[in-house]
Amino acid sequence: MEVKEKNSVMLELHDLSITEKKDDRFARVVTSLSFNEDDLVDIAVSRRTDFSENTLRAAIDILKNIAIEEICNGASVQFGLGYFHLNVNGVFVGDNAKWDSEKHALSVHVTPTAELRNAVKKCTVNVRGMAASPMAINSVIDVASGTTNQKLTPGAPVNVEGTRIKIEGDKEGIGIKLIKEDTKDETLIPATHISTNSPSKLSFVVPADLAAGDYRLVVVTQHSSSKVFLKEPRTFVFDYLLEVDA
After folding, report:
1. SS3 (DSSP) at 119
2. Which residues contact 198 (CB under 8 A, 6 or more apart)?
């Protein structure tokens, strides 16, 4: 796929507090839009493809189901923009060890295709300076699984690390939100349910009845560096999708 000049990425700079140099910065991609399969189908139809909306959706579903089936049979599959294969987690003791679902687990590893990697290399990158808001989430650590920026375990604690993320304020909707990617249903974790609530770290327990699926973690707060709340809440949407297992 040829990447045209219109393909561009915008970056914002943030303080890099882990170094001794006061002028060191790190950059984040400014993500203004998020697309799912339905959105991509709509875009394809709007570009006057010869295929109907129903045909495209059906083709995606058929290929996706076949890919899942083959991956679950141990195959390495290239589908869309990635190569998928299974990894094994856990330690096996002895030459004749058996599978133990309490100690072992399968996980999916995804490698971007060369087509995607090459397209990204050709993107125009613009840096528009320091971010207007210093608020940022750097990592989400699921204590039960020990993973970072990957999972949420219902009923288990989670540590969120970042900058200016303390939950405080008197406006409606203040707190941590877990937004289900497919349905957009929101689960609010209010300040009263957060065990650690500081500018650089939040700790809370994932609701035990949280449905399986992929979630966006969103922080909404009126926290400021002074003792006075911000007039309007600030919102930060974490970059990574977080998985909740069935």
Report:
1. helix
2. 166
pTM: predicted TM-score of the whole model, two decimal places: 0.70
Q: What is the mean pLDDT of each run of 10 residues along the chain (246 residues)?
A: 68 78 85 84 88 94 97 96 95 95 92 95 92 86 93 95 91 93 90 90 94 95 87 90 90
Concatenated DSSP letters of 15-70: E-TTSS-TT-EEEEE-------HHHHHHHHHHTT-SS-HHHHHHHHHHHHHHHHHH
Rg for the chain, CA atoms, rounded: 21
**Of 135, 187, 123, 197, which Cα lies nearest the Cα of 160?**
197
State residue 215 phi and psi, 5-degree precision.
-130, 150
What is the spatial distance between Cα 223 and Cα 199, in angstroms, rounded to a whole number?
Answer: 8
What is the layout of strands, in order, in the sheet containing 77-79?
77-79, 82-89, 105-112
Q: What is the DSSP string of 126-173?
A: EEEEE-S---EEEEEEETTTTEESSB--TTSEEEEEEES-----SSTT
> Between vectors from CA 48 to CA 45 and to CA 52, what angle results, nearest 5°?
45
Q: Are 217 and 124 in contact (CB under 8 A)?
A: no
